[in-house]
């Protein structure tokens, strides 16, 4: 075996076929895909419309370097995304993955301020328990401790604030509104400490994915965050790599929080895994600054605006629209929540069941009253994944939601084509997994 596997001591079943809601391994075993890998496969597998569009594009012109040419799929997909954004004139920069999209967002922020003659604005504020990618820049801006740990001494040390995470951080005597405001105001406090003239941007996941297990903020939080960013001249970057592209029931997750970011990044569901693709959307004022100052945006990768990747993205977004799949995201999302609550809300180790659309999280605790997590040595997160796979279920367990390695959750992000029968299968399989792992 010559593969340098992502888990160097792990062995993996060999996936050979994938269709609709299922992935099949070489032995013929089928796995119900209730997490889209990592919230990627939003149309399920082998969707005929995407396969056909992709084959057609590859057969006509797979790639033409975008420093020489533009291409039709890139133009059309950019327009489709810009049309969905809440302000006219947004421009879209295509890359190959979420980390690249966020790296481009950070560079946009720096170069924007430099172009405006404010080159001291360099720091990127982020939130604890967030993940923005695995490049040095995006990992520096991430607050996910388990993922930072090995690289910590080489990362840039930027300021971080706590997330808006009412399940753990709201005080008993606090209303949700008051808590949302208190959480948002931590941004203003840190800006005052660091100095607004040193800060380029605040990056935030509107709905936190793998680091916390699907945590939305409380009403009012993002309105206040937007105000703070405007007052102190700081760009607001919404990282929707995981929660965007329709996952939460609106194409952009921030729509439900009623604010407009300056930069939005999407990946994963943008092309549903049919090709590696990501996008960084910038509001018109940012793009215009590069034109008006004559500074340009100094960045680029070989595969920026890749024609085949954009053709896959275009087929995915057109399918979501033509088949009105966001309606299914909302209906099945509500059903998923209802079924999870009726099956597991009374379980002694299920602390919280939450989320929006087809983006759901289940937080696992050792003790429901104190919300104490299981001890690290119990390796709950890893065992959840292995046991689910044994039962033919793909879900996405994660750890570190309390601190460092402590705290476990399961992230669910099924394809937008999911039906009630798949939800019943999920609940049944999860019940078996919990019975094996969480029985006292
Ligand atoms: C919110 C968020 N941002 C960024 C990334 C990085 O994306 P990628 O793994 O495609 O580089 C991820 C990946 O899981 C993510 O969930």
Give the structure's gist in a few sentences.
This protein has 440 residues and is α/β, with parallel strands linked by helices. Helix content is 38%, strand content 18%. It has 2 domains: 15-46 and 324-437, Aspartate Aminotransferase, domain 1; 51-322, Aspartate Aminotransferase, domain 2 (3-Layer(aba) Sandwich).
Structural summary, described in words:
The chain has helices spanning 36-39, 48-61, 72-84, 98-115, 136-140, 145-148, 166-169, 176-194, 221-231, 284-292, 307-322, 325-344, 380-390, 420-437; strands spanning 15-19, 22-25, 30-33, 91-95, 123-127, 160-161, 199-204, 207-208, 215-216, 235-239, 263-266, 278-282, 350-356, 359-364, 393-394, 396-403, 406-412. Helix content is 38%, strand content 18%. A seven-stranded mixed β-sheet has the order 4-12-11-10-7-5-6, sandwiched between helices. Strands 1-2-3-15 form a four-stranded mixed β-sheet. Strands 13-14-17-16 form a four-stranded antiparallel β-sheet. Helix 2 (48-61) packs antiparallel against helix 11 (307-322), helix 3 packs across helix 11 and helix 12 (325-344) packs parallel to helix 14 (420-437). By secondary structure, the chain is α/β, with parallel strands linked by helices. Strand 2 (22-25) and strand 3 (30-33) form a beta hairpin. It contains 14 helices and 17 strands. The model has no long low-confidence stretch (mean pLDDT 97). The protein folds into two domains: 15-46 and 324-437, Aspartate Aminotransferase, domain 1 (Alpha-Beta Complex), CATH 3.90.1150.10; 51-322, 3-Layer(aba) Sandwich (Aspartate Aminotransferase, domain 2). Bound molecules: pyridoxal-5'-phosphate (PLP). Pyridoxal-5'-phosphate binds at residues 38, 97-99, 102, 131-134, 205, 209-210, 239, 241-242, 267.
């Amino acid at each position: 075996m010559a593969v340098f596997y992502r888990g160097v001591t792990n062995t993996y079943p060999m996936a050979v076929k994938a269709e609709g809601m299922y992935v099949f391994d070489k032995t013929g075993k089928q796995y119900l895909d209730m997490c889209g890998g990592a919230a990627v496969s939003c149309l399920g597998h082998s969707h005929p419309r995407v396969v056909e569009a992709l084959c057609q594009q590859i057969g006509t012109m797979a790639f033409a370097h975008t420093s020489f040419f533009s291409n039709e799929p890139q133009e059309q997909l950019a327009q489709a995304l810009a049309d969905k954004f809440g302000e006219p004139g947004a421009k879209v920069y295509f890359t190959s993955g979420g980390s690249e999209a966020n790296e481009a967002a950070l560079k946009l922020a720096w170069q924007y301020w430099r172009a405006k003659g404010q080159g001291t604005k360099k720091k990127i504020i982020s939130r604890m328990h967030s993940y923005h990618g695995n490049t040095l820049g995006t990992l520096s801006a991430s607050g996910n401790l388990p993922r930072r740990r090995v690289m910590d001494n080489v990362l840039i040390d930027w300021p971080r604030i706590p997330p808006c995470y009412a399940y753990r951080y709201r005080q008993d005597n606090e209303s949700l509104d008051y808590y949302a405001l208190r959480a948002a105001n931590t941004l203003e406090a840190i800006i005052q400490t660091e100095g607004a003239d040193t800060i380029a941007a605040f990056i935030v996941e509107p709905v936190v994915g793998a680091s916390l297990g699907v945590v939305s903020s409380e009403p009012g939080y993002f309105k206040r965050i937007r105000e703070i960013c405007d007052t102190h001249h700081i760009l607001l970057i919404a990282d929707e790599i995981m929660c965007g592209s329709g996952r939460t029931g609106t194409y952009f997750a921030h729509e439900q929080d009623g604010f407009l970011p300056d930069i939005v990044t999407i990946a994963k569901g943008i092309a549903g895994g049919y090709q590696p693709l990501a996008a960084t959307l910038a509001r018109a004022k940012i793009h215009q600054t590069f034109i008006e100052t004559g500074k340009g945006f100094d960045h680029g990768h070989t595969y920026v605006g890749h024609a085949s990747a954009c053709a896959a993205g275009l087929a995915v977004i057109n399918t979501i629209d033509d088949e009105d799949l966001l309606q299914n995201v909302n209906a099945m999302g509500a059903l998923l929540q209802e079924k999870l609550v009726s099956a597991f809300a009374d379980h002694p180790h299920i602390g919280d069941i939450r989320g929006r659309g087809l983006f759901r999280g289940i937080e696992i605790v050792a003790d429901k009253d104190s919300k104490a997590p299981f001890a690290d040595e119990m390796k709950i997160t890893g065992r959840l994944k292995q046991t689910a796979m044994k039962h033919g279920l793909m879900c996405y367990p994660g750890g570190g939601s309390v601190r460092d390695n402590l705290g476990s959750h399961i992230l669910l992000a099924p394809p937008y084509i999911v039906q009630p029968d798949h939800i019943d299968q999920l609940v049944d399989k999860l019940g078996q997994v919990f019975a094996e792992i969480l029985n006292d």
